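Troubleshooting: if your tokenizer reports a length mismatch, compare your output against this known-good record of 281 residues.
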Amino acid sequence: MTSTEQRAQGAGPFTTRLTWQPPGGGSAVWESRPARRRGVIAARPPGASTDRNVSADERTLHRLRTLNAIAATAFIIGGALFAAGAGVAQFGSADATTCASIYFAGGLFFTTGGYVSVLQVVNAPRHDPGGEGRLFTHGWRWWSYEPTRVDWLSAFVLLAGTLVFAVDLLDSFLQGLSVQQVNRLVWAPDVIGCLLFLISGHLGFAEICHRGWPCLRRRSIGWWIVAVNQLGSVLFMISAVAAYTRPGTGGLINADIADWGTLLGAGCFSVGGLLQLFERP
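Known-good structure output:
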């Protein structure tokens, strides 16, 4: 006896929620984010009036808890260091090298959080729409290529954004650059990294909302995490645009906006990391 798929939802080519009838009756609902972040799938036994969460095995849940804690902590620390760097630039008397060092340290934590976010996706439990509504887990993997999954694509784009930021942060240590070189080597990677962060956040909304545009899910902690991080990405982009060096004057468009945008945007990512600690299996 085989299961009957009842409904598939998602954004564009991505499937983010599946509802089907298991062979034994009742119904099962798989949603991408709860399954990969919390290790649960919703199932309704025959004759029952409400759904109940069916969890993955304890070994898988322990793996998910560990990865979630590492990623969340990395974003909390990375955001705090970026905010500290912006604060020193705005209020302190330290030189540019000191500020660049603080930013670079924060970038290392952001990259760590980005890669662990990919690990969360590739090692997340998978659903079996032909079974009784259960989750199963592959062996540990350090990498996989799954561009047809919106969660993988969102995490991969986020990681790519952190790596582009790393280029920007390394180039910021260079001395004696012309205005054109600063804009090409420092400013351009900064803008590209911000754009990748925005794309990642949009894909995160698509995963939660099961459609191609944002929605409001005030009771979903996953929605709040994506929303707060996306606000941080918007502030980062505003900061990046304001940090463009004018060829005629050699000064930034607006140094205050650049510093405050970075400080507040970084604070958003720290808050998002803190919220992520509560989205645990």
